[in-house]
Amino acid sequence: MGTPTFAELGLSTKVLDAVTSAGYETPTPIQAGAIPHALAGKDVLGIAQTGTGKTAAFVLPMISRIEKGRARARMPRTLILEPTRELAAQVEENFIKYGKNHRLNIALLIGGVSFDEQDRKLERGADVLIATPGRLLDHFERGKLLLTGVDILVIDEADRMLDMGFIPDIERICKLIPFTRQTLFFSATMPPEITKLTEQFLQAPVRVEVARPSTTAANVTQRIVKSKGKAWDKRETLRNLIRAEEAELKNAIIFCNRKVDVSELFRSLIKHEFDAGALHGDMDQRARMATLEGFRAGKLKLLVASDVAARGLDIPDVSHVFNFDVPIHAEDYVHRIGRTGRAGRSGKAFTIVTRSDQKYLDAIEKLTGQDIEWLDGDLTSLSTDAEDEAPARGRGRSGSKTRGGKTRDAKEAKETREKAEKAADKSERTEKSERKDNIREANAARADNADRKRGQRKPDKEDGDAPLGFGEDMPDFMKIAIRA
Ligand code: AMP
After folding, report:
1. Residues with CB under 6 A from ligand 1
2. Substitution site in 5, 28, 95 for ligand 1 pocket (most atoms within 8 Å of beta carbon)
3. What is the extent of the structural domain holding 35?
4. Residue 136 sits in the same domain as residue 269
5. At what angle do helices 285-296 and 85-98 cross, to 10 degrees?
6. Whose Cα sits closest to atom 13 in ligand 1?
7. 461 is a domain residue
8. Same domain for 201 and 232?
9. Exposed, middle or buried by CB within 10 Å (0-12, 13-18, 19+), for 296?
10. Are residues 196 and 273 in the same domain?
């Protein structure tokens, strides 16, 4: 049997109409696999990642199923749990898009937004409640929410929930919802903790699995670009790249491995008068949404992001991806460059590589089964400058005596720091309620880093061992190792 049409999946006429308006013609594999079972009221275990159309795979059957009936005050009829506020907001957009022929009451419970408005929406009765776990439990504890009326529960991005330490919350929430509910469960991967969770909370689920891409799209031109190892060298390499690509560059995502590097690079780009925004876990909700919206609407050209902040975000049509850092996990490379070249368009992906990145590059080439071309000669064509191998990532960077004897990096850092402090002040979190989710998000990023460091790379020295008191201008002799 070939691919079914949307009409063959059993969706209601109103939903089909909205799908047609959205311009979708053929269901994606996860949609074709999951929708008929979800409509039949079965539990579904969907193994699929973002970009596969998995959101519609649960949103469409849910809207069809809740067409009849009304919500009661404080008793939502369905609950969708999302690990981050952006993902929750994205799911809300999907409900609005596919529910355009319905009068759905949708409530979004996420951190960073006042409780009052959320309370009002709950009070009105929600057909669809979309929430991050922390904020949902906050509402529950305040007595504003009863979960005994939930007929359909969706747990989305479960493996990310695990990364972020949300599993105990999820377990607690599952126990607050009637056993007779339908559960739709989605995860990109199935680590043992997630399997255990599905065994505990799903009943005879239908398993629908969609292949994880390990290959990169042929329509994306990939190049690796050599750079000396210092942060400022890498920044200069990046700036040159962006300028060289200017004619073709519509918009770009620039990936860094760590949060601190996202901020630092963002400040530097602003200082150099690039049209840039940043996305990382510590920003407040409004600032993140505004950045994302600006980028989607084409008002912002460059978006600096970490994997954690960007994962799962639906940002269509990006012309370029720049990897400021080589990703430590090879799969992240596939994810990152999958941001460009969508829907058959052509895209370009550049990865800045320093000497210490060789093994990560090898892992990427092994995973994707292809050798990536160098843009302009490989690392052997770099001069071997002793200073070059100084730590390149993170705070406490060494190095500043630069060409011409100027303390260029120090100066740059000082100016950008001043600017950025203002920006940072703005994005200072103000609401207590937001803190919970944010702390977890930050912990997740930290844990992620710790795992990565533990498992795969030497600790980043510059994080902890940089001598204090020298600012940006640490003299070279301080970097000579002493014998114990
Ligand atoms: P998701 O995996 O849910 O994040 O969806 C990824 C992207 O695919 C979103 O931009 C959707 O709007 C789009 N999409 C979802 N279903 C379809 C479909 N059947 N055909 C084409 N695009 C789709």
Report:
1. 24, 26-28, 31, 50-56, 314, 316
2. 28
3. 6-209
4. no
5. 50
6. 53
7. no
8. no
9. middle
10. no
Domain-embedded: residue 437: no
> Within a domain: residue 32?
yes
The answer to whether position 286 is within a domain reads: yes
Q: Please tell me whether residues 244 and 351 are part of one structural domain.
A: yes
* Token pair listed for 224: 């690796």
| pLDDT tens series, the chain, 484 aa | 578 999 999 999 999 999 999 988 889 999 999 999 999 999 999 998 777 889 999 999 999 999 998 999 999 999 999 999 889 999 999 999 999 999 999 999 998 889 999 999 999 999 999 999 999 999 999 998 999 999 999 999 998 898 889 999 999 999 999 999 999 999 988 888 999 999 999 999 999 998 665 556 677 899 999 999 999 999 999 999 999 999 999 999 999 998 889 999 999 999 999 999 998 767 777 788 888 889 988 899 999 998 867 766 667 678 999 999 999 888 889 888 888 876 667 889 999 999 999 999 999 998 888 899 999 888 888 766 544 444 444 333 333 333 333 344 445 544 544 444 344 334 333 333 344 544 554 454 444 444 434 344 333 332 333 344 444 444 555 555 555 4
Q: How far apart are the first and last CA of the chain?
A: 70
Contact 377, 237 (CB under 8 A): no
52 Cα: distance to centroid of ligand 1 (angstroms): 6
Last residue of a domain, one of 159, 178, 209: 209
Q: Which of 314, 318, 345 to mutate to test the pocket of ligand 1 (most atoms within 8 A of CB)?
A: 314
Number of structural domains, the chain?
Answer: 2
